[in-house]
Amino acid sequence: MKSIPARPRSRRVLNQSLLVLGAGALATGLAALTLAPGVSSASSHREAPLIAGDPRADNTDVYAYTSLDRPDSVTFLANWIPFEEPNGGPNFYAFGDDLRYNIKIDNTGDGVSDITYTWRFRSSYRDDANQFLYNTGPVTSLNDPDLNFRQVYDLVVTRGNKSKVLLSDVPAAPSRVGPASMPNYAALRNQAIRNVPGGGKTFAGQAEDPFFADLRVFDLLYGGDLSERGQDTLAGYNVNSVALQIPKKDLALKGNPGRNPVIGVWSTTDRQGVQVSDSRNKHGDKWKQVSRLGNPLVNEVVVPLKYKDAFNTLNPDQDRTVQPVVDKVLDPILPKLIQQVYGIPAPPAPRRDLFEIYLTGICKACGPIQADLNAHRLNKDAKLRDIVPAEELRLNMAVPPTAQPNRYGVLAGDFAGFPNGRRLTDDVIDISLQAVEGAAQTGQLVPALADGDQVDANEVPFGTSFPYLALPHTKSVNSGPNGK
Question: CA 255, 260, 262, 263 torsion: positive or negative?
Answer without folding.
Answer: negative
